[in-house]
Amino acid sequence: MTDSITASSGPLFRRLAIIGPGLIGSSILRRARQDGTIAARLVACDISPDVCRRVAELGLADEVEQDPLRAVADADCVILCVPVGAIAEVGAHVLPAMKPGAILSEVGSTKLSILTALAPALRPDVPFVPTHPMAGTEHSGPDAGFATLFDDRWCLLTPLPETPPAATDLIVEMWHRMGARTRVMDPAHHDRVCAIVSHLPHLLAFTICGTADDLADETRSEVLDFAASGFRDFTRIAASDPVMWRDIFLNNREALLEMLARFMEDAQAMARAIRWGDEEFIVDRIERGRHIRRSLIENRQA
Amino acid sequence: MTDSITASSGPLFRRLAIIGPGLIGSSILRRARQDGTIAARLVACDISPDVCRRVAELGLADEVEQDPLRAVADADCVILCVPVGAIAEVGAHVLPAMKPGAILSEVGSTKLSILTALAPALRPDVPFVPTHPMAGTEHSGPDAGFATLFDDRWCLLTPLPETPPAATDLIVEMWHRMGARTRVMDPAHHDRVCAIVSHLPHLLAFTICGTADDLADETRSEVLDFAASGFRDFTRIAASDPVMWRDIFLNNREALLEMLARFMEDAQAMARAIRWGDEEFIVDRIERGRHIRRSLIENRQA
């Protein structure tokens, strides 16, 4: 399939519909418009008239639709770019209006909960290809997007066993044309990986900020003065959007709670070692941190 | 006192002895040598003949002594720059050899445990001024130091109630001449502030690296691939020296375990809110993180 895609010079899709042109959705539109080989015609859809007006002003799409059913009717690919908590609902709403053979995709940060909620609405004649582009900024809305958002970032894909490989290949190719690197994985594995690399670090960052905020006034003001000693690194990721992160935490509940439980056991073991002066244990745990840091540097991720 | 110091143009000390010319100690020597107004004569002392040889090669001091008792004998200020775990022992060893009126100082990252261990050896005629310059790199030894290490960094001072203000003023002035900003605080308060701004973040960073390292091989390798999503920020501070951090954790045991216990309660509350879908609680905790982040930016610490 990939060969035939590469061989053809026409766009991947005749008509691509983006439902929810926020940071991610409007970045897809901008890149597709700039690239020219992704879709012949771009449709943007949002239930908010303000967002529709703004998308039209910015000239991000060939058509701007407020009604999702009209937006998807003739599309050969529909990508749901609404918040994680709304993906299954919007998907179930538009699926009956999609034409047979069209591909349904979405860009949520969690996978299993979306799959479970959307499963009853899925159609055998509409391939479903869930994706997770690991890119973003602290801004949101159609003005926040930009064409290079996905350059050199990962996009994880979690197709179902019944998803036709040709559909997955098309979406993989689309993300390559967006500038992203792709990896296909199982949805449960996806949720565990994201729980440890992203969701747990964010949860810990939010939590330590709250712990500091609860301290007596004098200490709290000094936390701000002396934050350079380590605390500051934790606040960098604590500046993210509260509603987005609430939805991610709730939608990746199982994997996140499991990783947090493992972390809490490890932190308790460290606390016990400090209380009882177990020097060997403490040094061993610290050396693991250095080891992972070195691996990241070798892996050019640091 | 400060007025009289500023008025005089001569060096603050006739003879300044640095015990343990590692990263911090050799940076003090380099700055003092470059500045000229800190000490008329610099003495460096290390029990390791290799370190003594290297310090002499680098020309960091006017005299290099392997015997601490000889190094301190005629000094009017002695600064212990040995690891936190050795400060009390070295202090008790050199105190009887110091001349009356000379000032004893040290640069450990924790305060209460040093004070408790050193208290029986303190002399009423030798003022003790504990300090904590909040500066460092991941390197150590006499080659690692540099004259600008303390520029614009904080140095916290925790004099005893019986420390003569004139002695504290002299040490404050010395740190200003090193380029640092200073703040005087109570030793117990110091240990709590450092526990939350530095020691707890480091403990959490070491721990999450260990948690990731314990995952099944496949997930672990993907942690490295996808670390940019938040995990990476935590590893930056996890690259620190294991023995130094072991000593800090053990010497600030009480304050660190208290902050960790508060943090664990907060993390458990967050876990419970996620399990039961308490959206309001989750959003409230995340918004505190953003609030602290904004305060840091306003405070020019981020």
From TrEMBL, chains A, B:
<dbReference type="InterPro" id="IPR008927">
    <property type="entry name" value="6-PGluconate_DH-like_C_sf"/>
</dbReference>
<comment type="similarity">
    <text>Belongs to the prephenate/arogenate dehydrogenase family.</text>
</comment>
<dbReference type="InterPro" id="IPR050812">
    <property type="entry name" value="Preph/Arog_dehydrog"/>
</dbReference>
<dbReference type="GO" id="GO:0006571">
    <property type="term" value="P:tyrosine biosynthetic process"/>
</dbReference>
<dbReference type="Pfam" id="PF20463">
    <property type="entry name" value="PDH_C"/>
</dbReference>
<comment type="pathway">
    <text>Amino-acid biosynthesis; L-tyrosine biosynthesis; (4-hydroxyphenyl)pyruvate from prephenate (NAD(+) route): step 1/1.</text>
</comment>
<dbReference type="GO" id="GO:0070403">
    <property type="term" value="F:NAD+ binding"/>
</dbReference>
<keyword id="KW-0520">NAD</keyword>
<dbReference type="InterPro" id="IPR036291">
    <property type="entry name" value="NAD(P)-bd_dom_sf"/>
</dbReference>
<dbReference type="InterPro" id="IPR046826">
    <property type="entry name" value="PDH_N"/>
</dbReference>
<dbReference type="InterPro" id="IPR046825">
    <property type="entry name" value="PDH_C"/>
</dbReference>
<dbReference type="Pfam" id="PF02153">
    <property type="entry name" value="PDH_N"/>
</dbReference>
<dbReference type="GO" id="GO:0008977">
    <property type="term" value="F:prephenate dehydrogenase (NAD+) activity"/>
</dbReference>
<keyword id="KW-0057">Aromatic amino acid biosynthesis</keyword>
<protein>
    <recommendedName>
        <fullName>prephenate dehydrogenase</fullName>
        <ecNumber>1.3.1.12</ecNumber>
    </recommendedName>
</protein>
<dbReference type="GO" id="GO:0004665">
    <property type="term" value="F:prephenate dehydrogenase (NADP+) activity"/>
</dbReference>
<keyword id="KW-0028">Amino-acid biosynthesis</keyword>
<keyword id="KW-0827">Tyrosine biosynthesis</keyword>
<dbReference type="InterPro" id="IPR003099">
    <property type="entry name" value="Prephen_DH"/>
</dbReference>
<feature type="domain" description="Prephenate/arogenate dehydrogenase">
    <location>
        <begin position="14"/>
        <end position="302"/>
    </location>
</feature>
<keyword id="KW-0560">Oxidoreductase</keyword>
